[in-house]
Specification:
The protein is α/β, with parallel strands linked by helices. It contains seven helices and ten strands. It is globular. The chain starts with 6 loop residues before the first strand and ends in a 13-residue tail after the last helix. The relative contact order is 0.20. Bound molecules: adenosine-5'-triphosphate (ATP). This is Alpha/beta fold hydrolase.
């Protein structure tokens, strides 16, 4: 039954080399259940990106354990096909269409074309006819949407989005919200980081609030926002 739990983090700590005794993440434990949209919330430097990088297996924790669908995550181990991740700065070939870029990416994963669930993933991402245009004509928001569509290829059971609303304007942020809600509608699980409660409270079912590497609050959104928890989250821009 552990294989059904998208994410279980137990006592995880991380210090970067050279940062003396300052922890980027300190004794972090939480669990994400199937179908949840979990918002990882906290001001700049709270440890969100470090946490997400550890659960993607990009960096190793110093202590503790991370399990994704029951499997221990370790850097160097093959990325689970059940996980898709968006991190800022995905590169695209500007002269190719959005669709051609995604096809190229999928082929590079070495997985069969029919496993991509291309049309369904693209529909959820909501790129529409823009997919047939060259990426060089895209706005920043559109490029971000394309990178998220790329993370959705194969319709992974767990989708990880690191600050997907960064640099987007309010209408684009609303569209992003719709994309995440559509994605989770079929019982899939989403983990999204943000430093603004307002950006995620209408999207997420659950929140984990971090500050200075530690978990400050965790639980269903209604419990956290209903108790004035929003004051814990900084409102500084990026
Ligand atoms: P942001 O919203 O700015 O991305 P965050 O919540 O994602 O913030 P992290 O990027 O995880 O926070 O950073 C947590 C702490 O670790 C910060 O104090 C940061 O300066 C430090 N840190 C992050 N990356 C490194 C690194 N590669 N080397 C050294 N220290 C780092």
């Amino acid at each position: 039954e552990r294989a059904d739990v998208p994410l279980e983090i137990t006592g995880v700590s991380k210090r970067y080399a050279g940062s003396a005794d300052r922890y980027a993440v300190r004794d972090l434990s939480f669990r994400v259940e199937k179908g949840q949209v979990l918002g990882l919330l906290g001001p700049n430097g709270a440890g969100k990106t470090t946490t997400l990088r550890m659960l993607m297996g990009l960096i190793a924790p110093d202590d503790g354990e991370i399990r994704v669908f029951g499997q221990a995550v370790r850097p160097g181990a093959p990325v689970l096909s059940r996980v898709g991740a968006f991190v800022e700065g995905a590169g695209f070939l500007p002269h190719l269409t959005g669709r051609a870029n995604l096809e190229l990416y999928w082929r590079a994963t070495g997985r069969p074309a029919e496993d991509a669930h291309f049309e369904e993933a693209l529909e959820i991402a909501g790129l529409g006819s823009a997919l047939e245009r060259a990426v060089r004509t895209y706005s920043q928001g559109m490029r971000q949407r394309l990178a998220i569509a790329q993370a959705m290829l194969g319709l992974p059971d767990l989708l990880i989005l690191d600050e997907p609303t960064n640099g987007l304007d309010p209408p684009q942020i609303r569209e992003m919200r719709e994309v995440m809600i559509r994605y989770a509608a079929d019982g899939r699980t989403v983990i999204v980081s943000s430093h603004l409660l307002a950006e995620v409270e209408q999207t997420c079912t659950h929140l984990v609030v971090m500050d200075s590497g530690r978990l400050v609050q965790a639980g269903p959104v209604v419990e956290i926002t209903g108790t004035g928890g929003s004051v814990l989250v900084g409102h500084e821009g990026e």
